[in-house]
Write a structure and sequence with these properties.
This protein is mainly beta and about 120 residues long. The protein has strands spanning about 1-5, 10-15, 20-25, 30-40, 45-50, 55-60, 65-70, 75-80, 90-100, 105, 110-115. Helices cover about 0% and strands about 55% of the residues.
Length: about 120
Amino acid sequence: QVQLAESGGGLVQAGGSLRLSCVVSGNIFGIDAMGWHRQAPGKQRELVAGITSGENTNYVDSVKGRFTISRDNAKNTVYLQMNSLKPEDTAVYYCSADRRNRPGRYWGQGTQVTVSS
């Protein structure tokens, strides 16, 4: 079993910054790609940023140049640095982890990010 625990969400004004953290624990053997997703009210969940074990990254177009995903394998933690936040970034942010060569995805419980205008 794998547990993911997010933290770092909150309320921030437009133009501000937040850093989300996700600690992975439990049976982490083979955990490979990790990601941050978000879901706004009435919208589908979308992938915001992903990072492989080799630290290749990808981002949704709307956050490129503003968000940065990183990981610290020694701490079993993945981060999402969010700068120049906009009201449209308001959502619940979820951390995910995939196990190499295994189906399925592990999810965290989510952390709320609210950006006021």
